Structure prediction request, 504 residues.
Amino acid sequence: MEHNILVKWMKLGSISVPKMLMEHYTKIGLTETELVALLHVQAFIEQGDHFPTPELLSVRMTKNPDDCAKMLGSLCKRGYLSLEKDWDEQGIMYEDYSLEPLWIKLFQIIKKQEMEKEVEIEAEEE
Amino acid sequence: MEHNILVKWMKLGSISVPKMLMEHYTKIGLTETELVALLHVQAFIEQGDHFPTPELLSVRMTKNPDDCAKMLGSLCKRGYLSLEKDWDEQGIMYEDYSLEPLWIKLFQIIKKQEMEKEVEIEAEEE
Amino acid sequence: MEHNILVKWMKLGSISVPKMLMEHYTKIGLTETELVALLHVQAFIEQGDHFPTPELLSVRMTKNPDDCAKMLGSLCKRGYLSLEKDWDEQGIMYEDYSLEPLWIKLFQIIKKQEMEKEVEIEAEEE
Amino acid sequence: MEHNILVKWMKLGSISVPKMLMEHYTKIGLTETELVALLHVQAFIEQGDHFPTPELLSVRMTKNPDDCAKMLGSLCKRGYLSLEKDWDEQGIMYEDYSLEPLWIKLFQIIKKQEMEKEVEIEAEEE
Prediction:
């Protein structure tokens, strides 16, 4: 039994969360609950499930399915998450979540900070 | 400029969050906000800062320093976080946070689940 | 173009390598090339491809497909990797790689070290 | 004893390796042994040791200290690793390894691939 749990633990694996995201999620307008919801979506996507339902999220979160559905909708509307339509080999349409808008938002805020820093340095040098 | 942000991003690095924790934090009694607070503490510890103040946490979270202090106190009291006293070379006492209680709590719940599964399998076989 | 590379980078994701493995792979008898081969297998498994071929590995490594096939065979034989047979819904047999033997080997060497440490401490106390 | 190893495992933590690096290290001219050496350096840097010696690397690798020293030198000379001089508060000079050149090399090869892809798409459209 002893090593079974460690083996299960390792087989399940980990998700990598960029420290950039940990340091800046509030600055791009996310709450802790929304951040965790996005991390759950990322974990599902990495496991090959590109469209986790509100029910699935709800099992792992402190929120009920209705609140999860509302939160996912809000995250899409406010530009942290996107839904991309695609068609499989049989021509059946399916939808995939993508975290691309989140990474772009994060990229833009860091770029803005960098540019402000440069302006400050130039101002100091004058 | 272009590659600077990617380089900064990579130098800052990532934190690894075990999927075991992502799947079970609600079962061991944590909210999303508390989970994120613990991840912040983990990130600070990995960077060598073993005692992040409520003020430091507050900068990265949606909570003010007072609420962060209360949350850290509550996480310690409820057994997810511990404070270990130690003495440096000059004999000065310092305190370190440790996530050891969190990992033990998680280990125990998984062990309990495994044992229940075994009991079920045995019951089915009879 | 600018943020595209970062977005691609983030979408591709990361693999988490336990520092335990980084610190002890030589002690459990692995070379650097074998360690990297196992990390490639882990990355494929996490993406849902549980049986990467020697050809696939070869594209990412400095080895040709023949050498990759030999190395995978050797890793299985020496107990770092296992091949598990399974059957899909249509009754077709398929094979899955598993890193379970690697984690067990690592677990055992750490356990052995811990026990040796305890014996030393007891000897010192006498 | 039972949960001790898991706790040690979690406290030691993990390093995150971008899949971009796993997929392209051979294309930017690295061998598996050199890749692992760079991952060791990354792990040391993240733990706060910015200048691991060849002796330290040697303990974790299949190479002796002399070979590790040669490899580190070669990685610096060929542009995967850099040594940055800095001065501490007492004015004492110290040296820090940086993986910045590695990330830039990786960024450039992906950018080149992206541009070639765009050229191909344009050529097809004509």
Q: What stands out?
A: Chain D has one domain: 18-125. Residues 26 and 32 of chain D are 8 Å apart (CA to CA).
